[in-house]
Design a protein that fits this description.
The chain is α/β, with parallel strands linked by helices. An 8-stranded mixed β-sheet has the order 1-4-5-3-2-6-7-8, with helices on both faces. A 6-stranded mixed β-sheet has the order 10-9-11-12-13-14, with helices on one face. The chain is elongated, with a radius of gyration of 22 Å.
Length: about 350
């Protein structure tokens, strides 16, 4: 069921939600959280589709906030709120409210969203694109216990990682980090199978992919070893090679779907390591709403490393330390606290 409201208010939207639930016989008690999606008109459809798929695992009230740019100065001085309320089959397993904000109300989006939050339920804010530099200080981000961004969607992903580290607040997370969960799980499991000491690591992946940098930062932080960043044609992450005193450990995924794990003294093993859709990533992030300390540690470690790489090189390839330019390779990571190799636990 869909209910369209033009030039409306939060109070009328709440009444429409109650009316829609009564019409389709759907109770609200089954919803576990409120998901606030802040996006633009271009990306709203894909974000809403991903949220709808994720709602099968996490029934929620989804609020899509779309800030519309007014074309004329006269329109900018006014305010208008349009809404589309979806309940029942049109909203998956929860409720969906699409909010379109015009004029002055753009600067007060939190006043529109606050009355629509589910009472006594956690709030998650997600920016598919154009995330604020400091999500925790954003008016909408301040309402949420968990704030999800995606540096892969940024124009300069590696620089965006640096900004994220400087502004990090417990509760922040990144879908570029979520994408490497299977990689971290597989690498940690591989190290648990053999008694060895890792001496060096190489992370290979396509250019301008922050997931490659995040994986390298995590390995450098947890293993206290030099990490080399090399480029490939993709897709995404393609390989991780760990040099150990017991022989190399290689996790190679050339096609973006099936990987091969190679270890000395053991036969090569095929491992399912497909690239996941956004809906799967969001569903994973909604499973835990507590701060991700592992992400925080890796992110902050990487900023120091990337910063030193930029300072050391002044040529056109000055970004090589971050893997954000042709021929980019990160030099040995600066020494930090040592951590046992086998405790590089996955998220």
């Amino acid at each position: 069921m869909k209910i369209d409201l033009t030039d409306t208010t939060a109070s009328k939207i709440n009444k429409a939600l109650v009316q829609g639930r009564r019409a389709v016989g759907t109770p609200a008690v089954g919803m576990v959280l409120t998901l606030v999606i802040v996006t633009d008109e271009e990306n709203a459809y894909d974000a809403l589709r991903a949220a709808g798929d994720a709602s099968r695992e996490h029934p929620s009230r989804t609020l899509v906030v779309i800030k519309r740019v007014s074309r004329s100065p006269r329109d900018r001085t006014g305010s208008r709120l349009d809404a589309e309320v979806r309940v029942g089959a049109d909203a998956g397993t929860g409720e969906t409210v699409i909010l379109r904000l015009y004029g002055e109300v753009l600067n007060h989006a939190q006043s529109v969203v606050l009355p629509l939050l589910l009472p006594d339920a956690p709030v998650v804010a997600w920016w598919p694109v154009n995330a604020p530099t400091d999500p925790a200080k954003d008016p909408l981000g301040s309402l949420a216990q968990r704030r999800v961004t995606d540096t892969y969607a940024a124009e300069q992903p590696i620089q965006e990682l640096t900004a994220r580290a400087e502004a990090y607040t417990p509760g922040d997370t990144d879908l570029s980090w979520t994408r490497i969960t299977p990689w971290r799980s597989m690498l940690a499991a591989a190290l648990d199978q053999v008694a060895c000491k890792v001496t060096a690591v190489e992370v290979e992946g396509e250019e301008f992919n922050p997931s490659c940098e995040l994986l390298g930062m995590w390995l450098a932080d947890r293993l206290d070893v030099p990490v080399k960043r090399s480029l490939s044609s993709g897709p995404g992450l393609t390989a991780v090679r760990m040099d150990t005193d017991g022989g190399p450990i290689v996790l190679d995924r050339a096609d973006g779907s099936l990987a091969t794990l190679s270890m000395r003294g053991q036969p090569d093993r095929a491992v399912a390591l497909k690239r996941r859709e956004t809906a799967e990533l969001i569903a994973e992030e909604l499973r835990r709403l507590d701060p991700d300390d592992t992400y925080a540690s890796a992110l902050k470690y990487g900023v120091d490393k990337l910063g030193e790489g930029v300072e050391e090189k002044t040529a056109p390839n000055a970004k090589d330390g971050s893997g954000n330019a042709d021929g980019a390779e990160a030099g040995p990571a600066p020494a930090k606290k040592a951590a046992p190799a086998k405790k590089a636990a996955a998220k």
